[in-house]
């Protein structure tokens, strides 16, 4: 009788062991899936980081180009202003024409500066959006890590 009870207990424990083993296999599968998900998130984060770096370099190049264009526009304006002043000394009748040309150059310069400021603001907005996306991805990765830690 005692042997029979022990045999039943052993069978029951073997069933529990099988059930626990099955659960462990399921947990290992869940862990593998989460680790793969974390790995994919890390890859996406690295890709976004490279993209942000690329955008930052593009922004720097665009700012540098815009500065060069503004400087060239200033140099052209200064050059034309000098030419206008020498013409004013030569011909009093061309004074009104030279003033009109100078005003047009100032408007062109202001238009160029407005376009530069607009483009710069657009690039800043895009950079801020990229940084926001980067922060969002980092928060998601942190969430996955904490979820992973909570599971175990």
Give me a quick take on this structure.
Residues 74-84, 107-117 have a biased composition (Basic and acidic residues). With 152 residues, the chain is mainly alpha-helical.
Fold and architecture overview:
It is rod-shaped and about 130 Å long. It has helices spanning 2-90, 95-151. Helix 1 (2-90) packs antiparallel against helix 2 (95-151). It has 2 helices and no strands. The two termini are 42 Å apart. The chain has 152 residues and is mainly alpha-helical. The chain is 96% helix and 0% strand. It comes from Hylia prasina (green hylia).
Low-pLDDT runs: none
Oligomer kind: single chain
Helix and strand content put the structural class at: mainly alpha
Q: On the 0-100 scale, what is the average pLDDT?
A: 91
What is the N-to-C order of secondary-structure elements (H for helix, E for strand)? HH
Please state roughly what percent of the residues sit in beta strands, choosing from under 5%, 5-15%, 15-25%, 25-35%, 35-45% or over 45%. Answer: under 5%
Main beta-sheet strand count, sense and barrel state: none
Rg measurement, Å: 36 Å
Shape: rod-shaped
The number of strands is 0
User: How many H/I helical runs?
Assistant: 2
Level of helix content?
over 70%
Between the first and last Cα atoms, what is the distance in angstroms? 42 Å
InterPro entries: Odf2-rel
Biased composition (Basic and acidic residues): 74-84, 107-117
Organism: Hylia prasina
Family: Belongs to the ODF2 family.
